[in-house]
Each structure stands twice: as structure tokens, then as C-alpha cells.
Amino acid sequence: MKKISFDKEYSVEFPTKAGNLSLVIELGSKFPFEKPTMKICPRITHKWVDTTGEIVLAPGLMNYTIHSDLGRVVQVIRREFELDQSLTLANGGNNNGFSGNIAIGSAKNAITSLSNDVEFFSLAKLTSAELLRLNNNVDCLDEFISELPSIEASNKNIENSITKIMDLANSNMSKEEPIYNLRLEISKQLETIETYQKSYAELSTKYVKLSEKYSPQSISDNLKKAALKCDEESERIAEQFLNGDMDCDKFLQVYVKSRTVSYTRKAKEDRLNYQLKQLKEAGF
């Protein structure tokens, strides 16, 4: 931005399809209480620009208030001209601008040329008095804007979105209790699974112990130990008989029984060891 006159006049130069343009911003004595005057040099053919080169129909200028951001207004105007591929220079005419308020007649003619633009079509139907009322009354301007087709469509879309959001929220709330019940059910099932896991661990430990206890090799070892125990018992009985602590009939009864058990266990041990040896040789 170039300063032409401090706090009075500035210019912004930028390239467009029609060539390099200069946007001149004139700040009146009552600025910011009244909107600035903006002119484009050289003059161009555009819906926002009147026949003198003054920008009169830019939305930022038409809706200008003391709270408007002038930098933002200038940026929007610049971007509009930079992106407009149909922009052309105006033929003939005076490039010099004019001061004061917007010329209603020029504005009306410019608006009429925009009858194909949906956003400005409604303005073309208004009288000069109605245009002045819109320019001077913010409430009337807001009401007019709210009735524009694009605004109505936007409001309708917002209402539809709100309705969808409310429906979604109600749907989520209706699912809250079933989800809570499912969580309780899952919690109970997890407790049951935990109990089963604990029981499985205990049974697995018991199974390992029993497997070790009743394995063929373990049975063979136990038979061998039991046979040795019977042999020791037989020797003890024989010593008692030799020492005269046991009569002959009782000795024969007890001794024969002990030896029989010992022989039986040794026979079972030998048979089991033979079977284990055969299984081992067979690759089991």
C-alpha cells in the first residue's frame, strides 16, 4: 500500500487479467463514521464499479459500519478483481472520480446491469428511497439480507443440520441404557472367564502332578520300591521267627503272604519295563 496523503488518501497496486490496476482509497473527514471512497484506475468494466470508476457495489462498502475492517474490505475487492477472468478495461470515459455520497442514479443503473446476479437482483427492484433506507438503517439492511435466496438457503441448511444433530443426539441417548446393560453383561462374563481361567490353572497343575504320578516310568519305580519294602518286611518276619518271637503257623502265614506280594510286584515291574523297552524300540 502506498501513502499518497497521510490519513487521507492511499493506493494499492496489483496485477489483473486486464493489466495492472491501482485502487485509490480516499478517507473522508468523518472517517471512520462514514465509509471511504474507493476508485479503480484505469476504469474497468465490472459489476461493482460505476461509469466513473468508483467502486459502489462491493459488499464490504455497502454494508460498511464503524466496526468494519477496512483492510479486509480492500483485500476482498482486490481478490475479486485479481480472480475475475472476464475483467476488461472500460472504453473512453473520464477516469477522474467524484467526492461525496454514492450517486443513487449511477448505483441504480449499475444494479440494473446486474439483474442476472442472484445476490443483487433484489436491489434492482428497490426505489431510491428504499435504497437510502437500507443504507441508513442497519436493522432494515439486516432484514433485507436475511431474505436473500442464498441466506435463506444457508439458514435452511443450518436448520437441517441442527435437526440431524438433534436426531443423532436423541439416537445416542436412546442407546445409552442398552450400552450400559451390555457393559454389565460383559463385566459378568469377564468375571466368569476369570473364574474359569483360575479353575483351569488349578486343574492343569493337578493334571501335571497326576500325569507324573501315573506315568509308566513312575509306576515302575513305585512297584520297585513296594517290592523292596515287602522284601524288608519278609526279612523282619524271618528275624522274629528265628528269635522265637513268632510261632511256626503264624510265621508261615505272614511270611508267605509278604513274599507273594513281593514276587507279584516284581513280576509287574519286569512286565512293565519290558513293555516300555518295546515301545521305546518302536519309536514311541
Overall description:
By secondary structure, the chain is of the alpha+beta class. The protein has four domains: 2-130, Ubiquitin Conjugating Enzyme (Roll), CATH 3.10.110; 137-174; 181-214; 215-284. Helices cover 62% and strands 10% of the residues. The protein is built from ten helices and six strands. It has helices at residues 59-62, 70-83, 104-112, 118-124, 128-136, 138-146, 149-174, 176-213, 216-242, 248-281, and strands at 2-5, 9-16, 19-26, 37-41, 44-45, 88-89. It has a four-stranded antiparallel beta sheet with strand order 1-2-3-4, with helices on one face. The chain has a two-stranded antiparallel sheet with strand order 5-6. Strand 1 and strand 2 (9-16) form a beta hairpin. Helix 5 packs across helix 6 and helix 9 runs antiparallel to helix 10. Mean pLDDT is 82; it is low at 92-116. One of its GO terms (cellular component) is ESCRT I complex. One of its GO terms (biological process) is protein targeting to membrane. Component of the ESCRT-I complex, a regulator of vesicular trafficking process. Required for the sorting of endocytic ubiquitinated cargos into multivesicular bodies. May be involved in cell growth and differentiation. Residues 197-284 form the VPS37 C-terminal domain. It is a peripheral membrane protein.
Task: Map the helices and strands.
Elements: E1 2-5, E2 9-16, E3 19-26, E4 37-41, E5 44-45, H1 59-62, H2 70-83, E6 88-89, H3 104-112, H4 118-124, H5 128-136, H6 138-146, H7 149-174, H8 176-213, H9 216-242, H10 248-281
Antiparallel strand pairs: 1-2, 2-3, 3-4, 5-6
